[in-house]
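The passage that follows is intended for readers who have already worked through the single-chain material. We present the inputs for a multi-component assembly, then the predicted structure in tokenized form, and finally a short commentary. You are encouraged to pause after the input and sketch how you expect the pieces to fit together before reading on.
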Amino acid sequence: MVMKYRIFIILGMILQIFISSEYLPKSDAFAYQDTLDKIKSRGVITWGFDAEGGAPYVFHDPAHPAKLIGFEVEIVEAIARELGVKVQFFQNAWDSILLSLRRGDFDIALNGIEITPERVQTALFTRPYYAYTEQIVARASDNRINRLEDLHGKKVGTLYNTEAKRLLEEMGDVAVSIYSGQVEPFKDLSLNRIDAVLVDLPIAAYYAMPNPQLRMVGSPVGEGYYGIALRKEDTALAEELNKITEKLLRTGELKRIYSRWGLWNVAQEKLFFHEGLLQQYTESPPSVSETMPVGVTRFLPTLFKGALVTIGISLLSMMLAVTLGLLLAIMRLYGNKWFQMISTAYIEIYRGTPLLIQLYILYYGMPNIGVSLSAFAAAILGLGMNYAAYEAEIYRAGIQAIHKGQTEAALSLGMSRRLTLKRVILPQALRIAIPPMTNDFIALFKDSSLVSVIAITELTKSYGILAAASMDFFKLGIITALLYFGMSYPLSRYARKWEKKLTSHDRNL
Amino acid sequence: MVMKYRIFIILGMILQIFISSEYLPKSDAFAYQDTLDKIKSRGVITWGFDAEGGAPYVFHDPAHPAKLIGFEVEIVEAIARELGVKVQFFQNAWDSILLSLRRGDFDIALNGIEITPERVQTALFTRPYYAYTEQIVARASDNRINRLEDLHGKKVGTLYNTEAKRLLEEMGDVAVSIYSGQVEPFKDLSLNRIDAVLVDLPIAAYYAMPNPQLRMVGSPVGEGYYGIALRKEDTALAEELNKITEKLLRTGELKRIYSRWGLWNVAQEKLFFHEGLLQQYTESPPSVSETMPVGVTRFLPTLFKGALVTIGISLLSMMLAVTLGLLLAIMRLYGNKWFQMISTAYIEIYRGTPLLIQLYILYYGMPNIGVSLSAFAAAILGLGMNYAAYEAEIYRAGIQAIHKGQTEAALSLGMSRRLTLKRVILPQALRIAIPPMTNDFIALFKDSSLVSVIAITELTKSYGILAAASMDFFKLGIITALLYFGMSYPLSRYARKWEKKLTSHDRNL
Amino acid sequence: MIEICNLLKEYGRQPLFKGLNLNISKGSVVAIIGPSGSGKSTLLRCMNGLEAFQRGCVSVEGHKLYGVLERDYNKGQESIIIKNIRRKVGMVFQQFHLFPHMSVLHNITTAPIHVLGIQRAEAETDAISLLRKVHLEEKAQKYPGQLSGGEQQRVAIARALAMKPEAILFDEPTSSLDPEMIEEVLQVIKGLVLEGMTTVIATHEMAFARDVSTHVVFLDKGEIVEQGSPKAIFSNPQNDRMKAFLSRFMK
Amino acid sequence: MIEICNLLKEYGRQPLFKGLNLNISKGSVVAIIGPSGSGKSTLLRCMNGLEAFQRGCVSVEGHKLYGVLERDYNKGQESIIIKNIRRKVGMVFQQFHLFPHMSVLHNITTAPIHVLGIQRAEAETDAISLLRKVHLEEKAQKYPGQLSGGEQQRVAIARALAMKPEAILFDEPTSSLDPEMIEEVLQVIKGLVLEGMTTVIATHEMAFARDVSTHVVFLDKGEIVEQGSPKAIFSNPQNDRMKAFLSRFMK
Ligand SMILES: Nc1ncnc2c1ncn2[C@@H]1O[C@H](COP(=O)(O)OP(=O)(O)OP(=O)(O)O)[C@@H](O)[C@H]1O
Ligand SMILES: Nc1ncnc2c1ncn2[C@@H]1O[C@H](COP(=O)(O)OP(=O)(O)OP(=O)(O)O)[C@@H](O)[C@H]1O
Ligand SMILES: [Mg+2]
Ligand SMILES: [Mg+2]
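Having made your guess, compare it with the prediction:
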């Protein structure tokens, strides 16, 4: 959940690797001649998965928390049985599962990993073991949504790095909310924050079906396959696993597993005939895009999109901070005793307590008193209200630096306090306040990455998603860092120009 | 490693729990009548450990990364064999291993967990399976250190939450550096940053023995026991495991395992007679300190110590930031073209790039060019240099707000530029700069928690350590949050007083 | 038009005015003279609601402002009264206090446009003709920082006149002016008087006071030592303090 | 002592001085008079290195400051020259520019203590006697914000004198002073002259210029139109512009 510094920790670690070779992985996958042989000789197959990803794939049995259950557990156990080996469980964050696979942390990755052209470039996939479809979930009370087409113009939640996300984005005019956890989209759907959720059928089946407030809409849409990911060189293992999958299909064991979990549907029949389709992924694209530059530039649009969100949130929350901060500063300076107390208390509390708590209360606490904010609104409100406390003090300093004679002269001309402030004091105070305001604005760009806790995909989160998908942590990290710098630098240039303009004819009377 | 927001995430989660009950753990350990029965009926014992903790306990075989090895793996496998069940591996962060045990994520926690009075209050321990001792490691070239007593007045590294740490702290005049990773203390030892390392023998044996630069000093000191942690109610399981341990001891299997890992020593003989000792932990203290208030207040000194470190680092780095920032501001305002360029570039780069990268370069990068900073120095330098960029802009704004006539009057009196700045301009600019400076200082308190990445135990890290040890996340979290507020509020009060004093007779000429 | 009764004003524990009374009738030109620090500026500031006072009252055409310690003092009403007073009474400061971020023209037109609601074009025409009066029409687009002291002084006068007050308080209006300009300002003020404007001038320029005023008030250490027609005062001062003060002017 | 040769000074593209020459000999008291905006303040600022100029030079006892476009202009040396000039030439500003964060005493003693290295006690004794000269001994502990305009003016004069300069430039030193104080300042300046102090005074007070100066310079639109002894200038002005300017003073 703490996305804020992830990019920088990773960059830091890369740096460390460059600096001291002692941090290099002590061995790498290429040391193996044949993983299949190793598995057999060890009598153990190591399986990488992320139990945090949750039901119904792999998860801790709510009744017996120590035990992992899920349809994928059953599949892996069946495979292990066929191989004549035991399963060793290897918990790994889903984001970096293919990266760990490549490092050699485990033999197979099997955890609802959709076979996509990108992934096919970094991992070897077996034949699919499940044909997933995407399921729309809407509120039971909402009868506007009955087909995929009805999602046009709606707010739809989905999970990151999924085909459902891609599907929604291709539709163009859908407002997509991307979540990291599987519980939150359904929670936000009940809270009216989004209109529908589109996720892989297994997730919908597990989380939405039992909830009477929600309903599964129409027939599943889209289609794709889950495959077992292996290291590229493990072709022998792939062959063996393909054979085993074929066998589990033919004997009906897979069908039994899926049926038990409510996941069997006609789409699965395709598993018998999928081969041409898989080939399409595994053989043609690598020749085109295996070279890295293409890979990285292809991700740029997504990074830019993340950067735009960062900029958007930062701009809007800064606008709020500026307005509210000004109000607070005026209350402190010119208000009566009560206004002064309120303003001072606001400033002390919002400066003294951490932003993250403020965001949590706003997003998850407010619905309890009947105010349900969208993630975007909560992000802007949270950041804006926090920074307002800082801005208030900056304005106060600026206003107090203006010669009292200025106020007196304006008042003696019959101007009201409001007019004096607006026309005489603030324009002069602004010049003094610009540099510290710029400081805060630049800090805000970095702080805004905190809002990824409430399902907003801004720059840092985009980086995390792409880095996990492409496994090019280093180049993407550099690009992301440059994007951040690219936001703050023009801002600081512009602020200086503005400041200069305000100073130009002002010999400071 | 990202400690910065850990406390707040946890607080946030607690908040969430209070707000919506849907986040409550779906089941808890008390649902079990008997874990032993469950293990037997499932045929699986789930073992919680942290492979990141590393060698020689449980770790990924460098030659075959997919495989977990270590002496504890062998012990657990032996236990499982005796129980007639299979082992299910459950990777869990070491910090929260007892917490997860209590939640029911796994059946046993066995991972170099020292039996301590605190832990005995939250978990049930089996009889010890290993008698650990503490080993001093020094540089081979350093012949000053030959006994524990020689550590007085030295800088000694150790791991957090260990008995070795407690031992060092009891010695009084030892400067203790606390690390989270097992590699870093030895690295810093080679880099002359610390004089010695005191850690559990297994760690010293694995990491220091093969390094020709380091040597094991004298005979091991101190003593304690590793035990298997169980949930409090699993007395039947404890009995069974005690029996098995006894058997493994008697048959010599344990000795064989330890010998293979170079861990057998005479201290292990005590395992046969330890029982009285264990009782001492398990029976007497709980009656005194099981009540929570005692528990929480007992941790206060450590929290206060962390708060002192936070205050110390913040104060010192703010002093640096103030001085360097002033220099930068003066360079920008009065320097020639080159000074202006240098200052502007410094400000843009230090504002535009993340603090964490700056810290990493300073601490891990600088030794490569021959400059090896202590963690404390690196922390202060890193924070100070980062904040200096922000302060510089604040001072510039303050200085520029002062009437040009003031400078002219001072110059016409024959004052030098330096004197003018010091006696006439800065005292007036300061008044304007105080509010934004206060803003930054308060933000610095929070940002200073980032330095925990370089082995400094400040407030947030202290919280993390204590919370993991006591498992009282909520109360400790509230106390920690109050401590942070308790730092920023007096600061902000004092700043206002100071500001008022500077304003008092200044009708703003 | 302006009435000051029993004005008591203290700085800290140091009393400046200890019960001062002054009556300024409509259309009169009152010159306040007296040594430096005698309270001339403070008296003007009290008349315009810029300086709070402890006791007594200042009343401008029925708008009565009480000292903060008076029984009749009403905090809620205060700002309304002051506002009304300021609409009627303009002021030119000893240190000008021009708005540095506005051009000369903008300095003059801001208040008429936003307070009186006059059209911009009309306000600018008025401003230009006022600038012409003070010989600054070619500096209309300059900023205060680019003007000499005397030029700033004249802009400040034009700015106050632009509000068309019924009375105007000048705090040493001629202190930065050269003799020619003093003559001009004298003409301007005389013109204002003809239009019925009540004028109060704190000044050190005895010749100016003598030539322009209809009534002279001599202030010393916060007390009105002598007052009367300029002729009486300058040709035949009664008080010794006053005689000493005027000696240099007389010789 | 102060020599100005061929001074060319432009604001933007607008020339103010177009080759001005002026020679101020040691011990003389030069009054610069002229209409507002004629360049009096700017001329003084040029003499003290506060205003850069394009061409020509200002020389104070051999310390020669060149215009930035001159061949002899030397950026590296400039600050040293200016420093030397300022040690010899003090200045009192039209707008005082007292240091608001220091008490009156502190305002006066700061430069002597830190620039000349005089002991604090001695500097304070000196300051008190200077304050006595300008009748402000009882305001020594006050802050500038608590003083009237005239009081501030006098503190500024005391502050400049405390540096014991060889020459002193006054920019309208009497503009905020009452007639009595003008007399006092006149005595102070006359005393300085007796001590051999060279004095340059930009002023609008013709009587003051006449009484105090040994040489009068009439400036108009940046040009020296006429100069000479006060007697010659005031009793028998040659130039028409000058005659017009003086007419009010003469009548
Ligand atoms: N920074 C500037 N930019 C443009 N013009 C300026 C600037 N400073 C001064 N001037 C112009 O230069 C001229 C001379 O100004 P200066 O202050 O020297 O006049 P002065 O003789 O001292 O007038 P006064 O008697 O009113 O003080 C004025 O017309 C003024 O407008
Ligand atoms: N804020 C203050 N605190 C203390 N004393 C003050 C304050 N303001 C003014 N005074 C004192 O009040 C007295 C009157 O000041 P005021 O400015 O009214 O004098 P003035 O007659 O206008 O003098 P000048 O002719 O020099 O302008 C002065 O002695 C001054 O020192
Ligand atoms: Mg005054
Ligand atoms: Mg001037």
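Commentary: The mean pLDDT of chain C is 88. The pocket of adenosine-5'-triphosphate (ligand 1) is lined by residues C 145-151, 176, 178; D 11, 16, 36-42 (CB under 6 Å). How closely did your sketch match?
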